[in-house]
Amino acid sequence: MAGMPQQIMSGFRLDLGPLKEPLGFIRVLEWVFSIFAFATTGGYTGTTSFTVNCLDKHVSVEAKFAYPFRLPSYGYNFPNCSDPENPAKLFLQNDYSSSAEFFVCIGVFGFLYCTATLVLYLGYQHVYRETSRGPMIDLALTALFAFMWLVSSSAWGKGLTDVKWMTNPDNLVKTVDHCTKDTVHTCTAGPFPAMGRLNASVISGFLNLILWGSNCWFIYKETPFHKPNNPPVSVGEETGP
Predict the structure, then answer these.
(1) CB 179 within 8 A of CB 173
(2) Do residues 46 and 64 lie in contact, with contact meaning Cβ atoms separated by under 8 Å?
(3) Per-residue pLDDT, 237
(4) d(CA 139, CA 19)
(5) What DSSP string runs through 151-199?
């Protein structure tokens, strides 16, 4: 057991040649865009706001929210014009964490798979191409990831649309009973939350779909389905002189 790491390292042969081929170059792009996809989503924090207009003053109300967009867990204080010392505790509505977490999960696993295959391509290319098993497993997993990017990006795109609607200040004030049914309070919507990085995350998800889908063709060319192990024998060679 102690000699196993030495055996693994002894088989390592660094060769940057695959990076000049579509197989390796596209894998590097997949690695980069996988990081971009889960980083832009997982690190997001936003704020939606509106103003409560009392008879003698205007009070700004801010509600913060963040990944994984489990909005009911984010509360904010709604000022009481009649009793300023006792604000009402309100919460954002609806939970969109499932689509966001699924998208980030695919991004993280895609990043890990790209890292592992890049090590294989650059250090163990002789092992990868020694048998047909390596390319065939690589093709199956790459196709699976392409499908998962389609599903997760579509789900997160729909989830992001819902998050935008629910955190839109114009829609938020319509869901607050104090703003719509109370004659003492009137509410004015604030600026829309900045969500440029979340838009970029959805775009990167579909870019990943294109990259992983197109890479299937180049991996397919490494399998026996594209290039048979034994070339066909010509008629002249078969019959002899």
Answers:
(1) yes
(2) yes
(3) 47
(4) 18
(5) HHHHHHHHHHHHHHHHH-HHHHHHH-HHHHT-SS-EEEE-PPPP-HHHH
Give percent of the chain above pLDDT 90.
50
Segment (H or E) for 78 = strand 75-78
In this prediction, residues 45-68 reach a mean pLDDT of 88
Residues linked to residue 65 through DSSP beta bridges, in sequence order: 46
Residue 60, token pair as written in the block: 């700004």
CB neighbours (10 Å) of residue 62?
A: 11
Sequence-ordered list of residues with C-beta below 8 angstroms from that of 54, at least 6 positions apart, any chain? 79, 81, 184, 185
Q: Is 115 helix (H, G, I), strand (E, B) or coil?
A: helix
Q: What is the DSSP string of 27-66?
A: HHHHHHHHHHHHHHHHT-EEEEEEEEE-SS-EEEEEEEEE
Token pair listed for 109 = 């696993």
Q: Give tens-digit pLDDT for 137-161.
A: 999 999 999 999 999 999 999 999 9
SS3 of residue 89 by DSSP: strand
